[in-house]
Amino acid sequence: MIATPVERPPRQHDDNVTLILVRHGHVDGIDPPSYRGQRELPLTPLGQRQAKALSRRIVAEWQPGAVFTSALGRCVETAKAIAKPFDLTPEVIPGLIDINYGAWQGMTDVEVRARWPDAWALWHHSPQFAEFPGGETMPAFVKRATNALHAILHAQRGHTVVIVTHDSVNRVLLLHALDLPVSHYRTLAQAPCALNALVFDRGQFTVRSVNETGHLLGL
User: Fold this and answer.
1) 103: domain CATH number?
2) What is the pLDDT of residues 18-31, one digit of tens each?
3) Which pTM value belongs to this model?
């Protein structure tokens, strides 16, 4: 018996990788802002609608061969909505999980500023040096997030992939792609279910779009 070959998306030229980097949908704690970090928070009804709209946006332009996601439920749920039309199963990548804010997780920005004014100021004005009490340092966070990205790129040469992760992760990955220092962290915005399109080719990134949200109009 001759096995039927599994159909895969066509390989791209030069073994480059087209990367669709997206943020998860809306969750409680975004507005007013709180330090969500590695807490489990489900998508709100708005977040679920955003995930479906994002999926339609990706279907309209790309044919991804894989979907990768943070382990947290809000990302997994968003990733499943994206993967479903392509009959894909999202793969969890531990390094893509949100930053560990330690003692700050679950607290509002106002509460953190009142209790840790110096650490709060460092985070807001010099994020590259931030250290979160009982959590991660910013350099450690950047290293594990960028390592996760390059592991995916190395394994997916010649394909289009989707990565579903968090505001903080997206920011540091975009800074890495743009070859900008982490001190520029606050110059990038990442709305819920925003889309960023990049190409990685011969060791270089080309950033084609950042924080696309047009697919969310009217939700």
Assistant:
1) 3.40.50.1240
2) 999 999 999 998 98
3) 0.91
